[in-house]
Amino acid sequence: QGQLVESGGGLVQAGGSLRLTCAGSGSVFRGTAVAWHRQAPGKQRAFLASITSGGSTNYADSVKGRFTISRNNAKNTVYLQMNSLKPEDTAVYYCNVPAYNRWGQGTQVTVSS
Prior knowledge:
This protein has 113 residues and is mainly beta.
């Protein structure tokens, strides 16, 4: 069903912004929801946001109002716009297709204080 590749992570100061991209190969995104998760050091992986094939979104309370998930079906990409970043947002960020239990390799986001 294809692979997922995340990009866009990096080092940013608190209050800054980053946009993560998840590129899907093949038909992995077709007609299905896609989600973003993150895993901070010493913590379990946590759900952040999801978007259905029709564009309906859902967010964890911890990121609601700061993060925005979107998708471009023509480009087989899903984005996570992250604003007002905090040091506690530091983690490895993963995209996921729940229908196929498919995960990307993750991209590191580090927010300095």
